[in-house]
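Students often ask why inverse folding is considered easier than folding. One informal answer: many sequences map to the same fold, so there is more than one right answer. In these notes we will look at a single instance of the problem. The structure comes first.
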């Protein structure tokens, strides 16, 4: 007998049963809400398409496979990289973009998120949503008739960032298996590291979560990672102790917008800071990453170090999102 699911929750129930595979048909028309929808086979497929997109951009700038298709970027929080890379991805594949934010939408008049999503689905072929409320992307799924991409929901998840981060690690190191990966900074509020840790749990790697006690990785994320049984996890606030072994150093900013107490933010914001002197103690082939923006936690003096990969990381963001759009719209 089919499990009974109340009608308003049926879309969410169906979403949670959606897992992408190596078959491109498994992607078409689907929503991307959580990294929990991905496995090694689906990531390999996505990375294969992303490699093709990288080659396409280098050789010709793009193509017209998404001509006549329209992306809506609905962003209720500020964004540079995620919003612009999604728009650039759509434009490079011949599509068009409609942009909506909290100041231009009827949310200012009291419209619900579901009604806004339903409206955009009447005009567009795919929607990318960023929202300050954790769980907003799941809420939006109840109203969508089109593929929907979670572009960040509060302190919840940021799946496309995590995917491009793993793609960058694979591109820089040749793989993730057996690597020592250290995540440093605001692990409590950083949705990028919440998604990234869960995605890295697919690999037999060594994960170090380094944060002051007030900004430790949430327990639900740690449980999800350890439950996979592949990655090993350690937590501490001892940055200097783990630095020399790191193959990847992934630094995040302390998120001022998540603090109610300004004094607490000021006390924590630069607890860890990467400088050329710090890099001198790291492996010569270590990869230094950051989801950006940065606010002092990586000194600008580090930018010329060949280990600094955050510009390449940004470039990878566009080609990964080109691959995602092509797959979701059946044009990979």
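Output (designed amino acids):
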């Amino acid at each position: 007998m089919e499990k009974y699911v109340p009608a308003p929750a049926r879309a969410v129930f169906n979403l949670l049963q959606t897992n992408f595979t190596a078959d491109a048909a498994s992607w078409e028309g689907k929503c991307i809400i959580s990294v929990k929808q991905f496995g090694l086979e689906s990531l390999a497929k996505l990375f294969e398409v992303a490699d093709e997109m990288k080659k396409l951009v280098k050789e010709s700038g793009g193509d017209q496979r998404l001509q006549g298709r329209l992306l809506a970027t609905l962003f209720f929080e500020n964004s540079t990289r995620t919003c612009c890379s999604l728009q650039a991805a759509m434009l490079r594949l011949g599509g068009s973009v409609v942009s909506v934010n909290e100041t231009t939408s009827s949310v200012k008049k009291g419209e619900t998120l579901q009604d806004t999503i339903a409206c955009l689905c009447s005009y567009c072929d795919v929607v990318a949503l960023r929202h300050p409320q954790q769980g907003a992307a799941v809420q939006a799924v109840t109203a969508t008739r089109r593929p929907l991409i979670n572009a960040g929901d509060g302190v919840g998840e940021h799946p496309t960032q995590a995917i491009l981060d793993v793609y960058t690690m694979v591109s820089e190191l040749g793989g993730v298996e057996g690597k020592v990966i250290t995540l440093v900074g605001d692990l409590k509020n950083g949705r990028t590291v919440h998604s990234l840790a869960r995605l890295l749990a697919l690999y037999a790697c060594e994960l170090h979560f380094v944060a002051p006690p007030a900004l430790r990785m949430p327990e639900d994320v740690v449980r999800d990672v350890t439950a996979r049984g592949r990655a090993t996890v350690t937590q501490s606030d001892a940055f200097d102790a783990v630095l020399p072994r790191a193959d990847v150093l992934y630094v995040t900013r302390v998120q001022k917008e998540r603090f109610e107490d300004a004094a607490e933010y000021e006390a924590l914001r630069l607890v860890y800071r990467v400088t050329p002197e710090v890099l001198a103690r790291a492996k010569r082939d270590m990869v230094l990453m950051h989801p950006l923006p940065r606010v002092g936690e990586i000194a600008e003096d580090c930018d010329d170090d060949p280990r600094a990969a955050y510009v390449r990381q940004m470039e990878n963001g566009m080609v990964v999102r080109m691959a995602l759009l092509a797959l979701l719209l059946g044009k990979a």
